[in-house]
C-alpha cells in the first residue's frame, strides 16, 4: 500500500517543516523527489538527508512566485506524476494593518506560487495521461481566524483553485485535493511567534497548542502521512476534496 515507486514527485518548499516531511516520506515510499525551494541550502539539506537514507531527491532553486523560474524548474524535471504545492508564508494582521506590500507578498507566494506550479504541471500531467495534485490550504480557508486577513485570503484561494482544477481535469485523470492543517509545529510557526510576539514566545506557543481541542500542535510527519495517502493510487476515488487535519479545531472548538 502507498507505494510511489516509479513516480516523480515535485514538492515546493521542501526545505523545511511540512514540505521537508512530505519529501522525506515520499522518497521513502519510492518516489524520485524534486524539491523546488527558494532557500537552496535548506532544499539541499533535505535532498542530502533523503540520499543518505537511500532515496532519490534533487533540488531546483526557484521562487515559486516567479513564473519563468518555475517553468525552468519544471523543464529540468520533465515528467511530473505528483505535485505538492506546499511553499507558503505566514502573515499576521487585520485588514487595517495589512499594508499593500504585505498583501502583495502573501499573494505572490501563496496564491501565485501555487498557480505558477499548476500552470507548469497540469499540461505535463494531461499529456502523460494523468497525475495527482495536493495543495496546502489551512483551517484559515474555512473559519474566521483572528488577525489572519491576508493569510486567510491566500488559503481561501488555494481551496477554490483546488476545486477548479479538480473539475476541469476530471477527464484527464488528474486528481486535485487540498489539506487544511491547524497549527503544525514547524519553523513557520516558531518564526511567526518570534517575529510577532517577541518576549511572549512560551505563552503564545502554549496558547496556540491549546487552540487545538486535542491539546497540542500537529507534527509535520502527521501531515505527510495524509499527503502520502492522498497522492497514492489507493486514493484514486478522491478528487475535489479538502481534508482538515486539525486536532478537532474546526468541528470540536465549542
Ligand atoms: N505550520 C502550520 O501551522 C501550518 C498550518 C496550516 C497550513 N500550513 C501551510 O503549510 C505549508 C508549509 O508550512 P510550514 O509550516 O512547513 O512552513 P516552513 O516555513 O517551515 O517551510 C516553508 C518552506 O517553503 C519555502 N518557501 C517559502 N516561500 C517560497 C517561495 N516563494 N518559493 C519557494 N519556496 C518557498 C521556505 O524556504 C521553506 O523552506 C504552507 O503553505 C503553510 O501555509 C502550515
Automatic annotation (TrEMBL):
Keywords: Oxidoreductase. Residues 9-173 form the Ketoreductase domain. One of its GO terms (molecular function) is glucose 1-dehydrogenase [NAD(P)+] activity. Its EC number is 1.1.1.47. InterPro entries: KR_dom, NAD(P)-bd_dom_sf, Sc_DH/Rdtase_CS, SDR, SDR_fam. It holds the Pfam family adh_short_C2. Gene3D superfamilies: NAD(P)-binding Rossmann-like Domain. One of its GO terms (biological process) is monocarboxylic acid metabolic process. SMART domains: PKS_KR (SM00822). PROSITE patterns: ADH_SHORT. Belongs to the short-chain dehydrogenases/reductases (SDR) family. This is Glucose 1-dehydrogenase.
